[in-house]
Specification:
Blueprint: E1 3-9, H1 15-28, E2 38-44, E3 49-51, E4 57-59, E5 62-63, E6 73-76, H2 89-101, E7 104-107, H3 112-117, E8 125-126, H4 133-139, E9 144-145, E10 151-154, E11 157-160, H5 165-178, H6 180-190, H7 216-226, H8 234-240, H9 245-256, H10 260-278, H11 283-289, H12 295-305, H13 310-317, H14 320-325
Helix pairs in contact: 1-5, 1-6, 5-6, 8-9, 10-13, 11-12
C-alpha cells in the first residue's frame, strides 16, 4: 500500500528540514513498486508563498485548516526562529487531531517546539538540535530531552536532531517500512551514511557548563581550565575555594549542575577537541596535555561522551590548515599503533 507523508511548513522554516526527508522518500520510490510509493506533500501554517530561513520561497500543497484527512506520517519541520514563536491554539488543535489519527508523527530539528505546544511531547523521550535542547527541556517540563541523539523513537513519536538529521530520521523510517536494503540504496544515492557514528554532542561547541567567574565555584572552574594536565581532586579544589571537601562538592554540584569530576572530564574533552581540530599532535600528546591518564583513557572517555574515538573526531573536524600541513604517510591498515584509534 502507498504511504502518505505530510510535512508541516511555516514562515522561516529551514528548507533542508523539508527537502532532506522529502528527497529520502522520493528517492525510495525508485526502488519500490508503484503500489508501495510514498506520496509526500507540504502543509502550510499560512496561505500563499512561504519564505524559508535561507530566502527560498515554498508554495505549500495545502493550507492546514483545509486538511482533514490524516497522513500515515506527519512531520513538523524546524526553523531558526521557531523556539521564540508563540503557540497558535488552532494549529495546536489541528496537530493533536492529525497526530491522533496518523500511524506515526514527529519532528525534524526544533519542529519539536510545535509538537510541544500541542502537548504531544508530554511524558515522551525526544531529541532536537543540540542548541535548542536546553530551551525545549525548560519549556516543556513533562518531556525528557536527550540532546545527544541523532534521532529518537518513543512509541508513535519520532524526533530528530538538527537540520541534516532529518535525513537520518527519514532513512530510519524508510527502513521500518521497507527494510534496511532499500534504506541503504537510498543512502548511497544521496551519498550519506545510513547510520552516523556517535551522537550530536560532537557538533556542540562545548560540553562544560560554567558559572559566574567571580563566584567560588567559578574561580575553581577557571583554575581547572588552567591546570588540566595536573591531578585534580576534590580536596585540592576545595582548598582553592576555602571550603571543606564535603561542602565544596555540594555547592559545586548545586551551582554548576554537575559534579566536580564531571566538570573536569568535560573540560578535558573540550580541550582535547580543540587540539584535535587545530593541531596534528600525536594522540598520546593530546591526552597528556589535557590531563587524561593516557591515549587509551582519552579514547574511552570520547567514546562514552561523544560516541566517536579521538582519531575519528580528528578526521571529521580537523581544520583545512591542519590537513595541508600534515605530511605523515598514511598508516597501514594492517598495523595500527596501540592507543592511536
Amino acid at each position: 500500500m502507498t504511504i502518505s507523508v505530510a510535512i508541516v511548513v511555516f514562515p522561516g522554516v529551514q528548507s533542508l528540514d523539508v527537502a532532506g526527508p522529502m528527497d529520502v522518500f522520493m528517492e525510495a520510490n525508485r526502488f519500490l513498486l508503484p503500489a508501495q510509493h510514498y506520496h509526500v506533500r507540504t502543509i502550510g501554517t499560512v496561505q500563499g508563498a512561504i519564505g524559508c530561513s535561507n530566502g527560498l520561497a515554498l508554495l505549500a500543497d495545502a493550507y492546514y485548516r483545509d486538511v482533514v484527512d490524516a497522513p500515515d506520517l506527519l512531520l513538523v519541520a524546524g526553523g531558526p526562529g521557531l523556539p521564540k514563536l508563540k503557540p497558535e491554539p488552532a494549529l495546536c488543535a489541528w496537530l493533536v487531531a492529525q497526530a491522533g489519527r496518523a500511524r506515526r508523527y514527529g519532528s525534524v530539528c526544533n519542529g519539536a517546539f510545535l509538537l510541544g505546544h500541542a502537548g504531544l511531547l508530554d511524558g515522551k523521550a525526544v531529541t532536537t538540535h543540540w542548541n535548542d535542547a536546553p530551551a525545549l527541556a525548560r519549556r516543556f517540563e513533562k518531556t525528557r530531552v536527550d540532546l545527544d541523539r541523532i534521532y529518537l523513537k518513543d512509541g508513535a513519536l519520532y524526533t530528530s536532531a538538527g537540520v541534516t538529521a532529518g535525513i537520518d530520521l527519514a532513512l530510519y523510517l524508510l527502513s521500518e517500512d521497507y527494510g534496511a536494503e532499500v534504506s541503504l540504496n537510498v543512502a548511497k544515492r544521496l551519498v550519506v551514511f545510513t547510520q552516523r557514528r556517535g551522537g550530536q554532542s560532537q557538533f556542540s561547541p562545548y560540553l562544560t557548563p560554567f558559572t559566574s567567574d567571580v563566584s567560588p565555584v567559578g574561580l575553581v572552574q577557571q583554575y581547572v581550565l588552567a591546570h588540566l594536565s595536573e591531578a585534580l581532586d576534590v580536596d585540592t579544589l576545595a582548598a582553592i575555594a576555602h571550603m571543606s571537601p564535603r561542602n565544596f562538592a555540594r555547592v559545586f554540584a548545586r551551582d554548576a549542575q554537575v559534579t566536580p569530576a564531571q566538570f573536569i572530564e568535560g573540560a578535558r574533552v573540550d580541550a582535547a577537541r580543540v587540539m584535535l581540530e587545530s593541531a596534528g599532535d600525536p594522540l598520546k600528546t593530546v591526552a597528556y596535555r589535557c590531563g587524561f591518564a593516557d591515549a587509551s583513557h582519552m579514547r574511552s572517555v570520547f567514546m562514552r561522551r561523544l560516541g566517536v574515538s579521538p582519531k575519528q573526531y580528528r578526521e571529521h573536524f580537523k581544520s583545512p590548515s591542519t590537513r595541508q600541513t600534515s605530511h605523515r604517510p598514511p598508516e597501514s591498515k594492517a598495523v595500527r599503533p596501540v592507543g592511536e584509534d
